[in-house]
Amino acid sequence: MSLGNASEELKWKEGRNMKKIVWLFGLLLFIVIGSACSDDRLKVVIDPGHGGIDAGATGVSGKYEKDFTLSLSKKVEQLLKKESDIKVLMTRSDDTFISQESRQRPKYANEVKADLFISIHGNTFSDSSVSGTETFYYHKNSQSFAEIMQKHVVEATGFRDRGAMERDLFVVKETEMPAALLEIGYLTNQEDEAKMWTDDFQNRVAASIVAGIKEYQESLERAEE
């Protein structure tokens, strides 16, 4: 073989190899972009109640509901981030004020096309002897989700089971996906509140919220089979 022919063959092989590299790179890019565009994870919005100038309920100890809800919500967020098939989003991650008039909480959940919405609260009542855990929903398609969440959360709190009930609250009324508002316990009840501020209690409840989400997720998957 002449040097000229050898040189031509080398160029041809190099060109063929380059085409393979370009093709493989294009395939990899297609897979990456396709995966990003087809995120089929369950999208969950966690809504820590109140915030900023809206302190919510003031507990027996003088502590504010807004701080309790944010603390617990962050624990839920951290647990959900460990679930590969769940994407978690927060309506607030710090002491931010979100006005009720703006309806930003349900608007945000609708805009991001959430699959589930959970608003976390601490309860209050004029009678300090009132205690317990309860869950509110509005739309019929939220009832089973709310009942599952109530079951798990009340088991974690150990408080009186006050049930899952329909209630005309805008955060669960104006959301376009199954939504539940969790009243974890009464900050105006001395025994409830003392437990609610402990890390052990909040870690237990956070885990129960995740367990409730996963049970509901599994029920959806079974329904699709």
TrEMBL record:
Domain named MurNAc-LAA: residues: 106-214
UniProt cross-references to InterPro entries, sorted A to Z: MurNAc-LAA_cat (IPR002508), N-acetylmuramoyl_amidase_3 (IPR050695)
Keyword S-adenosyl-L-methionine: no
A GO molecular-function annotation: N-acetylmuramoyl-L-alanine amidase activity
Keywords for this protein: Hydrolase
Protein's UniProt name: MurNAc-LAA domain-containing protein
Phylogenetic placement of the source organism: Bacteria, Bacillati, Bacillota, Bacilli, Bacillales
GO cellular component, as recorded: outer membrane-bounded periplasmic space
Keyword check for Hydrolase: yes
GO biological process: peptidoglycan catabolic process
